[in-house]
Amino acid sequence: MGQTSFNAPTENRAQSNIMIRAYRHPDDAGPIRRMFLEATMGGPGSPYSEAMASFSPYTTATNTSLSAGLALLAFSRTESARDVAHSMGIEPSSIIGVAGLLLLVSVVVFLYGRWQRRRIDVMFKTYMKESLAGLEDIVGTFKLRVKNDGSCAPTARSECWVAIDSETGKVAGFVGLDCDYHSDPEIGEVRRLMVSPDCQRCGVGDKLMDMLDDHAREHGVKALELMTSDFNTSAIRFYKKRGWRPKKKRQYAGTSVRTLRREV
């Protein structure tokens, strides 16, 4: 599943209000998990909402088939229907058969949409359970060590960063770089880039990625890769603007997951 969480913006703040710092305080883990949940499963524009909307049972095809079937069924009971059937050389019952077929199509499309939405709901909940469990161990994932005073420090090239809204003091974004994910030490894996829905389109994602890029270059990383779901359309647009290109696709729980790559 995807490594990136974006949501639709609710307001537009200035970039100057956002500060980026390395993840050094384990107390940030709780707000980061809550932000990830909100950004992934939240309101309109979230990956979950986009995925569910793509398989709405109330589609144009469903409504058109249902309306046409009911209209044709009502028409089949009139004298005009008999005249039309006679002029076409068919039995009046054929009109009823066509109406029944249209109604059947509408039912099938409706049930298919319901089934797909149920499948997507289960897929996202499974993904969220796994992801939130991983975010509970940010220290372990990014090879940090906990010092005597409770703060964290890196032990290797891997690192992660937190964006803070200086006006509210709240966590506005997060991203991590895993330099041990690939066997090739010159490839780094971008993990869990997320931005709070309240801070969308105000440069948080760019600031986080700029910090990550600088760190990667300083530590000998030549290329970056990440994974994101096809449902995460906002994230895909963001990455394309920053020069990321598709490398491959694979299936995960019934949906396509893209691997993107960019040289640094």
Automatic annotation (TrEMBL):
Tell me the keywords, alphabetical order. Answer: Membrane, Transferase, Transmembrane, Transmembrane helix
Write out the GO MF terms: N-acetyltransferase activity
**Where is each N-acetyltransferase domain found?**
122-264
Q: Which InterPro entries does the annotation name?
A: Acyl_CoA_acyltransferase, GNAT_dom, NAT_camello-type
User: At the top level of its lineage, which domain of life is listed?
Assistant: Eukaryota
Which residue ranges run through the membrane?
Answer: 95-115
Protein's recorded name: N-acetyltransferase domain-containing protein
